Amino acid sequence: MSDRVLIVDFGSQVTQLIARRVREAGVYCEIHPFNRVSAESITAFGAKGVILSGGPASVADFGSPRAPDGLFALGLPILGICYGQQTLCEQLGGKVEPGDHREFGRAMLTLVEPCALFEGVVAKGEQTQVWMSHGDRVTALPPGFKVVGTSEGAPFAAIANAEKRIYGVQFHPEVVHTPIGKQLLSNFVHKIAGCAGDWTMKAFRAQEIAKVRAQVGKGRVICGLSGGVDSSVVAALLHEAIGDQLVCVFVDTGFMRSGESEQVVSVFRDRFNIKLVHKDASELFLSKLAGQTDPEKKRKTIGATFIDVFEEEARAVGGADFLAQGTLYPDVIESVSFTGGPSVTIKSHHNVGGLPERMNMKLVEPLRELFKDEVRALGRELGLPDDMVGRHPFPGPGLAIRVPGQPLTRENLDILRKADSIYLDEIRKAGLYDQIWQAFAVLLPVRTVGVMGDSRSYDYACALRAVTSTDGMTADFYPFEMAFIGRVANRIINEVKGINRVTYDITSKPPGTIEWE
Ligand code: XMP
């Protein structure tokens, strides 16, 4: 087993980034909520080091979270970040007070003492930019600690007890605005905690294959393929682990993008030689959606129809003991919610929830420990084509939620598919694909007047959307050059019969959403 680090989550918005940076340093780590960890669980996990995350609470508040008391007696290297630093100070006998001047954003840190955390990165007396976000601050150190870095708003910006290998920083090393942050975290896990750094996708592949074999035994596994990155990687990995015990079912809704269904079949059946059932259910989906325009009803109908078809196909191949799913680590992490209470459903993204319960199958989830970029790296490692692995996210209901305000027909879906494919083709040719989170066309429910040649046209308008984002939760429109959009619009209007007007959507999320429905 690779060396591992445990991150205790106090509910910071950026805790996941700590895990990303640690894994980029080749060290396996997991995030556990503060109220689920104890000295025993840390020992059982086999942590070689512990990182205490930031969080929104104030150490001064009654009942605010703490690290498990037994942690400090384990003798493990510890790094406290922001709230994590404050609580470790308070718990070890220091003092934390509400700051008279809050510090948010960029600050300059001066290193006043040499420190293992900063080794090879910043020398004594040098300054470096860090990212702060705190109200409270440490005002008196616990015994055995000394200040190693200061900033204008935080005289205790970096502290250390080198003998006990306990470190604290008031700033956030995990965010990109702390340019040296990645190296600091790398120093902590390698030089201070002594982790080897051998957690690579190659190692993960071998480890996960052994795990799957042990879990599945001689059982049969069924995997729903969608053409997206996650299910593709799951299928390729399982195939390598259990060969013909795996059957993949590709339910073709008819809402895929141009060329996508063909690619799924050619990659998995022809190249990987995976047992694949390709069910063209487009007729059924269209008939179930006939006349529907309400976005949520469409999602529900598509989800339910998908489950019906999938079940039927699974039965037809003789059933299975296990269902494989592409669940990722962000879905698994139980982030600590300080606001509590149910939030409003804006869109029901999880279209096929409840499938394993209904089909009475056990789950195989080989990507449960990975972030999206790690899934991509694993896909490359497994030999999946680059354009499949690097593909933009695509919603389960597909093009069906990109024809808002009018009933779906084969005709309007085809028009949309052509426009979308031209748009993506131009984006790829301009070398912009990888800078964009998602780009797609939307067919609008209006017809507009145009003049083509000498005659009048009365056709659809379409909208182009392209956004940048890191997680799909917030997004901004992509600032194309006007000449680029002009070129795309020209091609769409000239090449797609049925569209005579093109617009570009410049709405951010919030207040908009990425999809139009
Ligand atoms: P929104 O439109 O909510 O989208 O800003 C955020 C991300 O989720 C995708 N999305 C979906 N994915 N089923 C899915 O599997 C859905 O019903 C669905 N709706 C939106 C969207 O493409 C974006 O990546």
Give structural notes.
By secondary structure, this protein is of the alpha/beta class. Helices cover 32% and strands 25% of the residues. The protein contains 15 helices and 18 strands. It has helices at residues 15-24, 39-45, 83-91, 181-192, 201-216, 229-242, 260-271, 282-288, 295-316, 329-332, 355-359, 372-381, 386-389, 410-429, 482-495; strands at 4-9, 28-33, 47-52, 78-81, 95-111, 127-140, 146-150, 158-161, 166-169, 221-225, 246-252, 275-280, 322-324, 362-364, 438-452, 455-468, 476-477, 499-504. A nine-stranded mixed β-sheet has the order 2-1-3-4-9-8-7-5-6, sandwiched between helices. The protein has a five-stranded parallel β-sheet with strand order 12-11-10-13-14, sandwiched between helices. Strands 15, 16, 17 and 18 form a four-stranded mixed β-sheet that branches. Strand 16 and strand 17 form a beta hairpin. The two termini are 45 Å apart. It binds xanthosine-5'-monophosphate.
